[in-house]
Amino acid sequence: MLMNDKYRVNNGVPEPLGAALTDAGCNFAVHAPRAQRVTLCFFHRDTEEPLFEVEMPVKTGKIWHVHIADITAGMLYGYRLEGPANSDRGDRFDPNKLLIDPYARCLNRSMSWNARQYQDDSQFMVAKALVCEHPEPYALSSRPHHGIHDLVLYEVHVKGISQLHPQVNESHRGKYLGLCDSAIIDHLKQLGITAVQLMPVAAFMPEPYITEKGLTNYWGYNPINFFSPDPRYAVEDPVTEFRNMVQALHQAGIEVILDVVFNHTAEGGNEGPVLSFKGFDNQSYYLFEQSEFGIPDFHRYLNNSGCGNTVNTAHPVVMKLVLDALRYWVEYMGVDGFRFDLAAGLGRDPYDYTIQSGFLRAIRQDPVLSNTHLIAEPWDIGMGGYRLGQFPSHWHECNDKYRDQVRSFWRGDKGMTSAFATRLLGSRDIFHKGHRSIHSSVNMITYHDGFTLQDLVSYNERHNEENLEQSRDGHGHNVSANHGAEGPTEDENILALRERQKRNLFATLLFSQGIPHILGGDELSRTQGGNNNAYCQDNEINWWNWDLTRRTSDFLAFCKKAIHLRRQSDLLNHLNLQDDDYSNQFNVEKVGWYRPDGARKVVDDWHDENNQAFAVELKGEGVQPEHWLILFNASEHDVEFHLPSKDTNWYLLLNTAETALSACTESGYCSQFTLAYKSLCVLADRLTSTRLQSAFEDAGTGT
Fold first, then answer.
1. With DSSP H G I counted as helix, E B as strand and the rest as coil, what are the percentages for the chain, rounded to 5?
2. Which of 377, 397, 413, 658 is catalytic?
3. Structure confidence by residue, pLDDT tens digits, 588-620
4. Which CATH number fits domain 592-698: 3.30.70.240, 3.20.20.60, 3.30.230.10, 2.60.40.1180?
5. pTM more than 0.90
6. CDD domains, from UniProt (predicted)?
7. What is the 3-state secondary structure (H, E, C) of 631-649?
8. What is the CATH superfamily name and number for domain 9-130?
9. Catalytic one of 94, 341, 397, 685
């Protein structure tokens, strides 16, 4: 029933879903197949007091819809549903719970849990959807269009990067506009970043149990809507400011990849709140535990995510919702790709994973999404959830084996050399030649969920006391080392070794085949004080400290040179091997593996657990072929290397044993090189060295 005579109501149409402005007003359509009554509620823009309600008059199939004349952009709305009170069948209808439109493009404010406001009528707790103008399609010509071999990923939190930056406009700090401030973009460009991977920006709500402890979900992995940029990071208009941020990054040659969460929502399990999906079609949006006869128990949400529920992306309505959201972010918000949190859930059809799942096949054939960067976190915590190497060939996968085995090698663990070498050349035991690109592996040393690089070399154990769970949360298997003291120390020997290990790990990341993933802030030696699960810390634990010391400035300079070295090289970022028919081109004449005595490594050498030093030679094809030699020494003593290719005069470009770049001279080495304990060095022939050095100077990163 219309409660305000100003607006005229007619039936409207069932498509598109959501609120769609027309020349005469606005059409509203929502999926709610078992609802008996759907009421569209409007609210005052400033106070959120109710203005009027419209009972939706028509249901076509599973869609309720209405057109209301003279509705304009900026009006606030939500839904109330009535239906059968049959929880055994999965129905969660409750007219006292205001629901967010799953297709809302923008919310009027961020969402926070408030038990008192939710208890009876939830209208003042729940954020309202805004009727908004559909943005213009994002211009295809504005995108940088980097090839996959050019990607250097930089994982960043919108708030954390700019919250403490002294040069960022104070009102923009911690916001979308702060991330695209010239001071931040200049830093990214000088570092050599080609793509930022934003931690979740879709509207989310911190979990009730965290909120009640006085903490928050800082990371944002608890969505309430898949389309709306979270208002937390906006000064005024989240949609416009997000688009402006993307455009500014694109103008700087930096792509934007979103970390998206489609495996669960903020509605939690059986005792969780009804905010949106549960209230519209609980049976379809979520998966449930089954009896031995395959009958779902609607009182027990399947929990493959570890967050209380699991989104059923195999259901046609849910699959359409997710695909529509992905296309919206690409076509209208300008993003260039996605990193899918707990992506194994997307391949469950609906309970067991298959590479031929409907969702994965739908993305493959989609003309918009198939041309974006698609990165999987290839696991969830459900049965059979670890799926590294089992995604479609055009996907890229976060490689935890790379992370752990590279950490182990440099920590000095015995017997890791063979595995380390495999990770160095693209993890072809996982992503097989001829079937997967050498860039299938997303290589990372650190990620948001774990130690920062500084903490990785400073702590043996996690220190998560601030999370108020007696430090029981977070992963206990960190493959870290404090090198003599737990946490901060004034011992210069320990500090020097920590810096060397940071250089080793960072250089290995950049000189490995695959896509390098850098945890933003690692280049600034950012510490979380040993907290390896800082998801609930919206404070200095997560905010970046831009005040650099001589030591942290030296490491930043090292990171810049390592990244630019990779980006200027054809071989270091993209080996096309002759025995890999994934491509019909090759750029490598030979790859040689050597012992320190100069002899080629044989099978027994790889199985010698005490073998912690080796060399790899990369010799390219072409008119001006590159020629590289990288020496590795993870042992506790210096190692003398007899250099291969006796007719080659080798020039030193990078040495992790040296604190400052100025210590790396271009003196030639013909036969021998003494590599310090726990270090690596990069050498090249004269032609390669001269070309690379010129590129460094042109980029402003020369020694």
1. 25, 20, 50
2. 377
3. 998 999 999 999 999 999 999 999 999 999 999
4. 2.60.40.1180
5. yes
6. AmyAc_Glg_debranch, E_set_GDE_Isoamylase_N
7. EEECCCCCEEEECCCCCCC
8. Immunoglobulins (2.60.40.10)
9. 341
